[in-house]
Structure prediction request, 450 residues.
Amino acid sequence: MPQTNNDIFTDEEKEEAKRKKIADMEAATANAVMKSIADKYEMKHEILRTNYATVLVLPLDDSKIEISFSNNLVMEWKEILPNLLEYFSMKRPFSEIEDYLIKCHFAFAECDEKKYAIYMNGIKKFEYNFFHTSFQESEKKNGPFGIFYQPFYKFIKLLKLPIRVESIGDDAFDDCSSLESIKIPDGVTEIGRGAFEGCKSLKMIELPYRVRSIERNVFLNCESLESIVIPSEVQSISTSAFEGCKSLKTIELPHRVRSIEEKVFLNCESLESIVIPSEVQSIHTSAFEGCQSLKSIKLPAKVTKIVSMTFRSCSSLKSIDIPIGVIYIGKYAFAECTSLSSIVLPAGIKSIGGYVFFDCLSLESIELSANMKYIGKHAFDDCLSLESIKIPIEVESIGESAFKDCSSLKTITYSGTMEQWRKIKKGKQWNEEVPSKVVHCSDGDISINA
Prediction:
């Protein structure tokens, strides 16, 4: 049986050809409908066409606006288009036109001197990765410009959403790197993960009062964000919500928050102060790591653990009061806090993890808890200003390089006897470069290497 042309193509290629044919038909219909309506008005206009949308370009006093309509929604927008053209023909101030568009289910955007509006047909949710997935049609060299040019999302400076929008999906405005300002309708109750991730020019934002949670990565790497108003009813702030917000100086957490998750404020380099609600019970890994401007912080009484890297590289942190209920401090918790000068560990702490105070160059004094049993490896490594330390009688193990390079440590006191000191398990090089040669025990002095 002879092979036909149809047999040459795969099922996927046939399906793609079918979709393209339908899109072409919808585009032709939309273009014809728009032309027939717009030509009735004595107003300068231009019509641009893509396979997925038709764009009506209308003049303004000092510029023009591109208004886009999906080709497959002709029956919806052909009913409102005459009213829209009538409104424009009245030559109203642009502020009124802008408000009108938003009320008529358009999203409004500004990009440099250009203005755009997108008909959303009463859509109540900005779906996943909205600006990436909706406008990929014209990556072609000679394709239409403006709203349907795929990299458009990178140049949006101002954005206002239609009043009917109730939720913003995951990654909706991801990488809108020029976005400086956005107006979110009061009716919005949900903002998805990574919704504003990478919006490097966003300076401030006010979240609607109905929002109850701030999801993972919502403002990740919003480098210009200086302030944010968090609704009082917010109950949770998820992982990396404000990570990399390098310009954020202060923030007030709502009283309903019970936990500060991993990396929430990681590398918020300008954060100077924060009030943690009294009901917070847990602070997770790297929550404040890299907050270089944070000078002091008060931990709530209900916190029982300071986990790994919580305050690592908080280089301006001079002091911190650790609640009496804390029983554990994880590795690197205060590492590289180069301004930390003194600290008192509560009686409940029985062990400190590795590298806890590594490179705390200004640490002059520390009071270990009486119940301390384990001092982790490199716990005080490179604490150049530490002059003396008292090791409790309960200590059973001192980790490898625990006091390495403590070049000012001249006095080591041990609460127990010399015999008890000998029984303590000591890691290799635990006292490397320590100037003290003896340990002062309750019944006399003993060689530091005993």
Notes: Residues 15-165 form one domain. The mean pLDDT is 88.
